[in-house]
Amino acid sequence: MKFTKNIAVLLFLLISSVALAQVKFDSKVSKSKLGVNERLRVDFTMNEDGDNFNPPSFSNFTVIGGPNQSVSNSWVNGVRTYNKTYSYFLAPKKRGTFTIGQATIEIKGETYKTTPKKIEVTAAVDIPKDPNDPNYIASKNIHLVAEVSNANPYLNEAITVLYRIYISPEIAADNLNEIDTPRYNDFWSNNLDAQNEKVTNTQYKGEDYRTLLYKKVVLYPQKTGKLEIEPLSLNVSLRVPTNRRDIFGSRLMARVNRTVSAGKRVITVKPLPEEGKPVDFTGAVGDFNLDVSASKTELDATESLQVKVNVKGKGNLKLFKLPKISLPSSLEVYEPEHSEKVRTNLSGMSGSISDSYTVVPQFKGKYPIPSISFSYFDLKTKSYKRLSSEEIVINVLNGPASTTASTDNSAVANVNKQAVVANSDQFSFIKTKSGFQSMTTSHFFKTGTFWSLLLLPFLAIPLAIIIRKKKASRDADVHGNRIRKADRLAKKYLSNAKKSLGQKEAFYIALEKALHNYLKAKLHIETSDFSKDKFISLLKGKQVEDNVITDFIGIIENCELARYTPIDNVTMQEDYDKAAKTISLIDKQAR
């Protein structure tokens, strides 16, 4: 009997030890039913330390705090008690019945999961007005307000939204986290820097508060009618005073996490008036100036110039298109390069935008750039305004003549002709008296000039013999003569390009002309026959090496591109040296 009792005690101790050694991983919620304006606490607790903790998604809640981790480890009568907890503070996003899913963790190589919890979220409930409740105190002493500069703007008129947070001097804020950022649908938006804003003292609803400008946004409405500005929500960590005091008599502070929202704002956007709206109106709203300029008005054919259309002022500069220029067909026009120098502050956008066109005339003549107009809606006068530029005339001095250009020039010549006015003193009387004077006779014979001219042929004979011998020696040097001839040819054709070194456009125009003129003389082709394929075939036919042909074509391509791209003096010198070397090589190799 005694033996049986000992067996029973031993089994009890064994079962107890196994039970104590069992791993537990549970989830607990502060309440299973709450209002949409209340907060929920969820704790995930384990009795053994683990790794790779993975919480549920909380998809129907906003995490306003956590995870906060706490650990408890104690020994009582030789028995160890260990607890580790991950805590989350949640705010429901809407009403309904939701499930907080399973959390997982790995303990001693095994994966453990919690049991899902169902939570019912009801409509907002009245929070007890307990002056001793830290949450109630926090709700009454912190506010987030969205200040809108204009609730009834025009379409594309700038408005500003300032988000200010007001905190009572009785409580302290430790941390601000943005948990719900407005998306500003149907607006063009730009966030301004608010990091250097300072806390100031002010009044809010008749009471003293400290305020901070938390966020600044400039908005341009892109639709008419009623538009919503979504609310901004912040999670604020606060320290709230309680009725408890420490041993020195100072009030103890309770830490509270509070979610504050600026609330939804609605603005009514007015459409721009239809009366007086120009046909070419592209949506510009504000106050602007128009300027159209050309980098030069006199140049030669195949040279380039820049025509710049610039609009500057204050308004929605990034939200409309600039007017296009209209040019004669004889002017080759490239796609414009768009540039913006726009800054944004609380009053909206200001600065300038421009389109820069590269224009290359092909023929000699005078070409007008017609006046262009730009219309915008002026917010001050609440009316449409039109700006027009002056006509610009481009005079192409040198180049091939076109039919249109010849006609224009002859017309200009006829206009410039003036009638010849006869001079009343155009015939003079014949003079009857001369002014002749007598001259003394001098003799050239036996003068110094006579003897110099007499001896000069005898002195020139030995000099002519020396020059003839050197010429014969030089003529015998066939290879050297070819090199010298090629070098002279290169210098001849590249002389104008060398004079223009340092002036990008003039240099590459002269270099390209020199290369074309050289090919015309070397290959006996006309300007109309110019094509890269024909160059290559003719040079190959004259047994010029492939690498030399490639270098020559590459230089021509560089000339075409370099006039419209930034080039430094070093690159120009390299292109000049390469062109001179290539011309010399072609002249030596061509047969």
UniProtKB/TrEMBL annotation:
Keywords: Membrane, Signal, Transmembrane, Transmembrane helix
Domain of life: Bacteria
Presence of keyword Transmembrane helix: yes
InterPro entries attached to this UniProt entry: BatD
Transmembrane segments: 448-467
Pfam family of the protein (one): BatD
Signal peptide annotation: 1-21
PANTHER family (UniProt xref): BATD (PTHR40940:SF2), PROTEIN BATD-RELATED (PTHR40940)
Annotated protein name in UniProt: Protein BatD
Annotated organism of origin: Seonamhaeicola marinus
